[in-house]
Structures are given as structure tokens and as C-alpha cells.
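Hypothesis: this fold can be encoded by more than one sequence.
Test: take the C-alpha cells below, design a sequence, compare later.
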């Protein structure tokens, strides 16, 4: 019997007893809990980590627009962005 890959494996997270992969799993779990399909959540997590934001400090050091752009590359779009409304 062959087991399929986990979402964490698909997102490129290699679990070790270190803060970075634990934070990455937290980010992935938050994305998976939103109203998007799992594939988009995994792709979005990969984009965030590819941008170098695999720790809370690195994420905090990014700009809002950088994060929005990475989320968009992963396929995640906020409701107001999908419908052309300007929220801010």
C-alpha cells in the first residue's frame, strides 16, 4: 500500500525540530483553513516560502504589497481583489 504525500511535503516543508519548519507548517495550516482549495493553499505556501518568508521575522520584514503579490502568484486572491473593489 502506497501512501500519498502530505500537504506539508507538497509545500516543500521538511519537518525538523527547529522553529522555521514549524512556522512553515503553521502558515500552511492557516492557508488550508481558509475557503480555498488545498491545491491553492499549498501553492500559495510555496510562493511565500520561495520569497524567503519562512520565519516570523522574515514575514514581518516584508511589505504588505510583497505579501499580496506572493499570495496572488500562489492563486490566492482576496474577495475584494477578485471583484475589482478597492479596500484600501
Amino acid at each position: 500500500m502506497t501512501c500519498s504525500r502530505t500537504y506539508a511535503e507538497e509545500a516543500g516543508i521538511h519537518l525538523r525540530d527547529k522553529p522555521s519548519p514549524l512556522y512553515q507548517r503553521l502558515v500552511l495550516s492557516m492557508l488550508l483553513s481558509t475557503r480555498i482549495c488545498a491545491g491553492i493553499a499549498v501553492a500559495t505556501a510555496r510562493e511565500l516560502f520561495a520569497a524567503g518568508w519562512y520565519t516570523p521575522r522574515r514575514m514581518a520584514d516584508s511589505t504588505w504589497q510583497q505579501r499580496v503579490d506572493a499570495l496572488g502568484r500562489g492563486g490566492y486572491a482576496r474577495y475584494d481583489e477578485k471583484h475589482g473593489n478597492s479596500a484600501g
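The first helix runs from residue 7 to 10. The helical segments are 7-10, 19-32, 38-50, 56-61, 64-73, 79-82.
Hypothesis status: open.
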